[in-house]
Design a protein that fits this description.
Strand content of chain B: 25-35%
Helix content of chain B: 25-40%
Number of helices of chain A: 30
Largest sheet of chain A: 6 strands, mixed
Radius of gyration of chain A: 38 Å
Largest interface: A-B, 28 and 34 residues
Number of helices of chain B: 6
Distance between the termini of chain B: 11 Å
CATH superfamily of the largest domain in chain B: P-loop containing nucleotide triphosphate hydrolases
Helix content of chain A: 55-70%
Order of helices and strands of chain B: EEEEHEEHEHHHEHEEE
CATH topology of the largest domain in chain B: Rossmann fold
Number of domains of chain A: 4
Oligomer: heterodimer
Structural class of chain B: alpha/beta
Largest sheet of chain B: 6 strands, mixed
Structural class of chain A: alpha+beta
Number of strands of chain B: 11
Number of domains of chain B: 2
Shape of chain A: globular
Strand content of chain A: 15-25%
């Protein structure tokens, strides 16, 4: 049996190879989903946590249990709190199912009025300090003066303690000082007496152990934890007011995605436990916000990946089915013969199942490594059909991906076996009878194609009507509704099958028009197309589908990418926007020496020199005063959320970026109006609408400095009203009084730089630069000149950020892969169809030749068939792809739009993609015709005709 | 009696493993006009090879084939095509109709290929009537029985008024009653249309209908019989 199957497989090696390719792609693409999303999301998670660390200087993997223990509380409740607390802390670690990298307990007596220390040494008044203990402190410090504390109380009743170097330097305490705590006694009722034995310094300030900066312990005398517990906390009793903190630290770079949910759950459980039991602790963690946002984003990424993957998986399934069907079509006679010789249907199906399983097994073995490679390809997609050599993702073959591979492999096996079910029913007699029936397929008789098209159009109509809700859902962080993609795919599919009705109509129309004048070759090919369409229907649908999907996907990718790139370049405003740190007198104001904020203006000539030295890179540069919190005085009230730009119109026009096609007129016209009126102001449309301003009106602006002190008002004349401005977003998410996030409008005013400086002191301005090429030189210059920036935005960096965003990476990667796969399948499917179609018609060609048809005519006949059987579907597919893009892209674009709709979304249809498709298709067609001609010339008429003999 | 086709010492060899296989070993036959000539022999005897050569589907390795006074043994592909298009018709053993064309169109197609100058419809119907199938003109091949299909093939072969028709085992897949019908049609066409028929067969029951019967064995003519009209050639 095995040998029989092998022989069968080898006989049709090309078809089998195609099926194998289909299966490998199926397995590879299916199993790369979990592999890739895991790797990309892991990268995103780690990156976000390290970003959090950089921004806040707090450790993201930290969970803190915080409890305030006091005598009064203990007496009014039961006495189990401290033990409970320790148990909860212990449990917490267990609940994470993961060992904390670092566990730190900190106990300290909190400040109380009477918690003072009397100092034995004369010349020192009493000092306010806390008694504290940190677990395992000895392992993380070095003693720089004196000695480490001893873990037992001295014979004279003194407890050793140590202080950090800062305390040592700023207080008058010296080693050997003896102190007694006021008002607090130990559990045994003894007075608390300590002796300073040494001064410590953290061994390594980067040590995770130092949840709080070691130098921040400015009021603490540290004593051994065992003594602290023994003297103040033992047995559920508490002496004094004790602040207990239990830090659990998890190395964030080790935190993996499956732990995210568990860590969040644990945190929430600890939180609710705290509320439901009367255990007095509170719990907080640094990671909650990161993780919650991460889970939201990761589900969005995963959903997106699925949505983008389903069409290609379906296409592959269809492809495998089509080729398997072709194989079984060829083996039809064989099957029927086996049937009539008494082979049962079950046996037949089992044989084919085994055959499919062999192929599936091979596909599995190749598919998994292939999926692995695909993940790396995704990781290096930069844009649609663009790859870069970027640091690859840490992709691993996980259990989940193996499961996906197995499931896809199993479905592949089923799909391969499916066509045999149809034929296994017939014996040789029935098969011949069956062959004769040539009714329209069921779906055509039932008008299912039109029903599907109607459904898809309804979906489109429905989504179009719900556009606003769609936007809201996306703004709330939801993934795009899969039904939207489904409707688009359905639209393409239903158009493709409706097209099946069109081809014969069209060709028979052309046929009828020239019935009398058609040459024999064309005559025969028209009849072939109109009468034998059903044999071709599958390849026709397949061609339409692949081309349409290819174009549609390419357009999605282009649109999504370009809109996002333009948005980033628009909100950044220019290639580089920097705001230097200027020295100011804030500290003097705080100490009450000054009232007005003053700056030492940074020397702009340094910038000018830099620009001169790098004239080849700095195309243009300008200063921009950019307030984000100005007010417009309207009807006696201040309207806040006003951004004010003060610009040098000419320089600004040369430096700033404004995407094409956003405004009706070129934005230089706006700049010109401002330039013509020194006291003019350009305002945003939403401001004009809110206050009813029109061009020519007067407008009063109030500016504030960084300390929120008014810098005074000034009047301007409205010279123009705009909707878009480089660097300006018309709304922003802001916290309301209740703490919820809400979108609020942001207003824009643009004035002349010199005019603003007439009435206001200089405040730190932004420097906008237009850069040619890399921005590296700027970083080097800033470093060499020790220039630090308060604000810094580098467009090229932001673009890299975009390319690294898993959401965009997946979209680009998936669409690119789909596109390539589509082309591969298209070429293979096309060749298979034509080769088998020619093989099966060898006898007919022999007849044509015997009747005196020349080789040239035969090829002309086939080319004509090509035109209707392939070129028409390809053209139609291209049309459908473009139409689907026109219809669905504005909706799909919403899924990728930012929360704030800064720019109107554009639909991008790249001509170069069409050209790429056209080139590949042309290559495919010429290749096919070459192969076909070679095949044809090999056919010997007499041999073809001799089929009948013997 | 006028002869339409003659071969002189025709040989045909095919390359096989270990040398050439000589399928025809110097065959000389004469086909008289307006007769039914039968090439008789078992399978592998070389009768189909001979038919292909005299039917301008294949060229001999050596020897000459004179068709209608012209030597066609050295003709180019192009010349053969023209010959096949206008002067020659074929009938094959197995289903030889173009499956996407109905009976009428199959016959008409021969006219198209031959660029027939007269009225297509009239000629097609005339031919179909000759084979007794004028009522089934619009049927597709798969809707016809084996005998009916073969009759359509005959109608198609004669449609463009060829001088000669070659038939390779035309009755090979037919029962004896239908076979006789086909032969009867051949005879009728010889009379009515003035067409010469050359057919191969191994069916001994049909030999008596052939005006000339050449028996071929291992690439050689081993026996020649004459019946009816052929008697004159004896």
């Amino acid at each position: 049996m095995f040998r029989f199957i092998l022989q069968k497989l080898l006989n049709k090696k090309w078809l089998i190879l195609s099926i194998l390719i289909g299966n490998v792609l199926l397995v590879g693409i299916a199993c790369c989903n979990p592999m890739y999303s895991r790797a990309a999301l892991q990268k995103m998670l780690t990156k976000r946590m390290s970003g959090y660390l950089e921004e806040t200087n707090q450790y993201p993997g930290l969970l803190t249990l915080d409890s305030r223990l006091s005598k009064t509380r203990l007496t009014s409740h039961s006495s189990r709190y401290f033990n409970d607390y320790l148990t909860v802390a212990d449990d917490a670690e267990k609940m994470f199912e993961q060992k904390a990298t670092q566990k730190v307990t900190l106990f300290e007596h909190t400040f109380q009025q009477d918690a003072k220390f009397a100092v034995s040494r004369s010349g020192l008044s009493s000092i306010k300090m806390k008694l504290a203990s940190l677990s395992n402190l000895d392992e993380h410090i070095e003693i720089i003066y004196g000695d480490m504390y001893k873990n037992e109380i001295g014979a004279d009743g003194f407890i050793d303690c140590i202080i950090n170097e800062k305390v040592y330097l700023t207080s008058n305490i010296v080693i050997g000082d003896e102190l007694e705590m006021y008002g607090v006694v130990t559990l045994a009722g003894e007075p608390v007496k300590i002796r300073v034995s040494g001064v410590f310094r953290a061994k390594d300030t980067q040590d995770l152990y130092w949840v709080n900066d070691p130098l921040s312990y400015q009021d603490e005398f540290f004593i051994p934890q065992s003594i602290f517990v023994n003297k103040f906390l033992e047995g559920g009793e508490v002496s004094g007011n004790i602040h207990a903190k239990y830090f659990l630290l998890y190395d964030y770079s080790d935190i993996e995605i499956p732990q995210v949910q568990r860590m969040l759950d644990t945190f929430e459980k600890l939180e609710t436990d705290y509320k439901t039991t009367d255990c007095l602790y509170s719990v907080y963690c640094n990671y909650q916000e990161i993780f919650t946002q991460f889970l939201k984003d990761s589900s969005k990424v995963e959903a997106t990946m699925w949505i983008l993957q389903v069409p290609i998986l379906v296409l592959l399934a269809v492809f495998i089915f089509m080729v398997s069907n072709q194989v079984i079509d060829i083996e039809q006679g064989e099957i029927a013969m086996l049937k009539s010789r008494g082979v049962s249907r079950l046996q037949l199906i089992l044989t084919y199942l085994l055959q499919s399983a062999i192929l599936g097994g091979i596909a599995l073995i190749i598919g998994i490594p292939f999926g692995y490679i695909l993940c790396h390809v995704f990781g290096s997609t930069n844009a649609f059909l663009e790859f870069v050599g970027r640091k690859s993702l840490n992709v691993r073959i996980t259990g989940e991906s193996l499961l996906y591979a197995l499931v896809s492999c199993a479905s592949g096996i089923l799909i391969m076996t499916l066509p045999v079910l149809k034929f296994a029913r017939f014996s040789i007699v029935e098969q011949k009878a069956h062959k004769r029936k040539k009714n329209k397929p069921l779906w055509q008789r039932m008008f299912l194609d039109f029903a599907l098209l109607a459904l898809a159009l309804y979906g489109f109509y429905d989504f179009n009507n719900q556009k606003d809700e769609l936007m809201k859902a996306i703004a709330n962080g939801e993934a795009v509704n899969p039904m939207l993609f489904f409707s688009a795919s359905l639209f393409i599919l239903s158009c493709a099958i409706v097209f099946l009705r069109v081809i014969p109509l069209l060709s028979s129309l052309i046929f009828r028009i020239g019935r009398k004048s058609w040459k024999p070759a064309e005559y025969a090919s028209f009849l072939q197309i109109t009468r034998d369409i059903h044999k071709q229907s599958f390849i026709t649908v397949f061609l339409v589908l692949t081309i349409a999907l290819g174009i549609f996907n390419a357009n999605i990718a282009r649109t999504v990418n370009q809109n996002e790139e333009e948005r980033i370049s628009y909100t950044d405003g220019a290639d580089l926007v920097v705001k230097e740190n200027w020295a100011n007198n804030v500290s003097s104001i705080r100490q009450g020496y000054a009232t007005k904020l003053r700056y030492n203006e940074g020397d702009y000539t340094r910038f000018e020199r830099m620009a001169e030295e790098n004239a080849d890179r700095v195309v243009s540069m300008t200063r921009v005063i950019h307030d984000t919190d100005a007010q417009v005085i309207f009807g006696g009230n201040g309207i806040s959320n006003v951004e004010m730009f003060a610009i040098n119109t000419y320089e600004f026009g040369n430096t700033a970026q404004m995407p094409d096609g956003v405004t009706e007129h070129h934005w230089y016209e706006n700049l010109n109006k401002l330039a013509q009126n020194p006291e003019g102001v350009i305002i945003s449309k939403n401001l004009a609408d809110a206050c009813g301003y029109a061009v020519g009106d007067s407008l009063t602006l109030e500016r504030f400095d960084e300390t929120r002190q008014s810098m005074g008002r000034k009047s301007f004349t409205v010279v123009d009203i705009v909707e878009y401005w480089p660097g300006y977003e018309n709304s922003r998410e802001m916290k309301t009084e209740t703490g919820e996030l809400e979108m609020k409008p942001v207003y824009l005013t643009v004035c002349n730089y010199d005019n603003v400086l007439l009435d206001y002191p200089v405040v730190p301005y932004e420097v906008w630069l237009k850069i040619e090429g890399s921005t590296d030189f700027f970083y080097k210059w800033a470093e060499e000149n020790k220039i630090t920036f308060k604000e810094f935005s580098d467009l090229s960096n932001d673009m890299i950020g975009l390319k690294n965003d898993p959401y965009f990476q997946i979209t680009n990667g998936m669409l690119t892969i789909t596109f390539i796969v589509v082309l591969v399948l298209c070429a293979i499917g096309f060749l298979i169809f034509w080769i088998t179609s020619i093989r099966s018609r060898e006898l007919i060609f022999g007849i044509y030749r015997a009747m005196g048809m020349s080789m040239g005519e035969l090829i002309r006949m086939l080319v004509n068939e090509h035109v209707f059987g392939s070129i028409l579907p390809i053209l139609f597919g291209a049309g459908i792809g473009l139409l689907a893009s026109k219809m669905f892209l504005p909706l799909i674009q919403i899924a990728y739009s930012p929360k704030v709709e800064t720019l109107p979304a554009k639909i991008v249809m790249s001509g170069s993609d069409l050209v790429k498709i056209a080139v590949v298709v042309t290559l495919m067609l010429t290749g096919c015709i070459a192969v076909i001609s070679a095949l044809l010339s090999k056919i010997k008429i007499n041999q073809a005709l001799k089929l009948g003999e013997d | 009696m006028k002869e339409i086709l003659r071969t002189e010492a025709v040989t045909r060899s095919f390359p096989v493993a270990g040398g050439d296989f000589l399928a025809l070993k110097g065959i000389s036959v004469v086909v008289p006009e307006d007769t039914l000539t039968i090439l008789k022999g078992r399978s592998g005897s070389g009768k189909t090879t001979l038919l292909n050569i005299i039917g301008a589907l294949d060229a001999p390795t050596s020897g000459t084939v004179i068709f209608d006074g012209k030597d066609i043994s050295k003709a180019s592909d192009k010349e053969r095509e023209v010959l096949r298009r206008h002067e020659i018709g074929y009938i094959f053993q197995s289903v030889a109709l173009i499956p996407v064309m109905n009976a009428y169109e199959n016959v008409e197609y021969a006219l198209r290929l031959a660029n027939y100058k007269g009225d297509y419809r009239e000629r097609v119907m005339e031919c179909l009537k000759l084979v007794g199938l004028s009522k089934r003109a619009t049927h597709m091949p798969q809707e016809l029985s084996g005998g009916e299909q073969q009759r359509v093939a005959i109608a198609r072969a004669i449609a463009h008024k060829p001088k000669i028709i070659f038939a390779d085992e035309p009755t090979g897949e037919l029962d004896s009653a239908t076979s006789l019908q086909v032969i009867a049609i051949f005879k009728e066409l010889i009379e009515k249309e003035g067409i010469t028929f050359v057919m191969t067969t191994h069916d001994t029951k049909l030999m008596g209908y052939g005006d000339v019967v050449y028996e071929i064995q291992d690439g050689e003519i081993i026996n020649t019989e004459y019946h009816g009209k052929g008697e004159q050639l004896r």
